[in-house]
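Progress note, sequence design subtask.
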């Protein structure tokens, strides 16, 4: 077990105005309501998860536990993530399944790769969401 983190895309039409807690599956959590494509995957990168949780709260997310909740990233969010990463503003957070408190260079490099892919997805008219499960 551990912190599994995903970025995925959906068409902007399917995303609608949703910025948090996009419902992706039917009431039994079995059948997808629309097509989504995995864009990126991280494992136990708790500093990024904490950054995403802050974004979730800023955008109106209210879940007590930020687990299996989605948050939409727009171009401004990606710019801020890029700036915060470059300015060492990602801070490790604690969690039973969250892994080490060290931020490794390859994790920071993965953010740059993710941002490039996310910007491309936005340019194609898709919406980009973050999701996690721990």
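Output:
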């Amino acid at each position: 077990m551990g912190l599994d983190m995903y970025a995925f895309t959906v068409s902007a039409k399917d995303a609608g105005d949703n910025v948090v807690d996009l419902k992706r599956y039917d009431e039994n959590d079995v059948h997808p309501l629309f097509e989504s494509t995995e864009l990126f995957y991280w494992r136990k990168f708790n500093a990024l998860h904490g950054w995403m949780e802050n974004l979730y709260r800023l955008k109106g997310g209210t879940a007590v536990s930020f687990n299996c909740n989605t948050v939409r990233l727009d171009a401004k969010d990606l710019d801020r993530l890029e700036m915060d990463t470059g300015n060492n503003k990602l801070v490790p957070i604690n969690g039973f399944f969250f892994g080490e408190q060290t931020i490794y260079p390859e994790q920071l490099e993965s953010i740059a790769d993710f941002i490039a892919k996310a910007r491309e997805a936005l340019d194609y008219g898709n919406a980009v969401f973050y999701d996690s499960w721990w």
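The chain has a mean pLDDT of 94. Work on this subtask will continue into the next period as scheduled.
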